[in-house]
Amino acid sequence: MLKRNITQLLLFGLTAIAIFTLPALAQGKQASLSDDTIKSIVERRIAKLDLKGANVTVTVADGVVTLSGAVPTLAAHRQVKETTDGVDDIQQVVDNVTVTPSNLGDQAIADEVGKAIRNYALYDIFDWVDGRVVDGVVTLTGYAREPWRKSDYEKRVEDVPGVRQIDNQIEVLPLSQSDDAIRAAAARAIYGYPGFERYANRALPPIHIIVKGNKVLLKGFVQTAVEKRIAETQVRTRVLCLGVTNELLTDADVKKLQR
User: What share of the chain is helix, strand, coil (3-state, %, to 5)?
Assistant: First the structure.
């Protein structure tokens, strides 16, 4: 009797295993997507982007997706590449898409890049973004307080017509409570100084305060050499930090650079 009960239990166990594993086995036998289906999925996704001035073709052979054509901006290029993300059975993506050349010269592109950065709502006095443009290739330099800020600055530049490529060399500053305290103290010391109210009241004040390892770097612009010295003196005498480097440019400095 006991032997029979044990046999029944064993049989039930085997049955249970079969019942619960069969669906999983069945799922593993799903048919793979055909090349035509993959092509259709990617093409529909590209169409939904509604990219003006874009001309992109999609070909698929043995799971290898080839994207060809031209788009107006790097932002559009990134969006097109992302249409292949998450599509089953894609083995490889070959990206032959190019950015349409612009009639803008490097200086005009640089001006537009500067506007894109300055108009970003989260760009403030504690970050600094600079750079250069050569043959449509933008090199971004400067400092950002978080990695996502560095990425956001690059995305802003991707929208600028004429930008063919971006080399993002912006340095991400380390997280530090002491650096944060120095940032706040330096801002109060500089923008609380009588006569600097006109700077403080701007949408984007021109004196940027970069803090790394308890050291302060001043970047940006003031009108005169006297104001440049005042900004540095305010930090040196009113903020507890390990040092101050003053790279502020005056109106005279800017005129020299523009010659």
Answer: 45, 25, 30
Report, in angstroms and rounded to the nearest whole number, the Rg of the chain calculated over CA atoms: 29
Q: What is the pLDDT of residues 234-250, one digit of tens each?
A: 999 999 999 999 999 99
Contact 123, 155 (CB under 8 A): no
In degrees to the nearest 10, what's the CA dihedral of 150, 151, 155, 160? 30
96 and 66 Cβ atoms separated by less than 8 Å: yes
Nearest to 89 by CA among 24, 151, 11, 31: 31
Strand, helix or coil at 69?
A: strand
- Residues 144-180 have pLDDT tens digits of 999 999 999 999 999 999 999 999 999 999 999 999 9
> Sign of the CA dihedral 98, 101, 107, 109?
negative
Residue 162 falls in which region: left (phi positive, over 0), alpha (psi -120 to 50) or beta = left
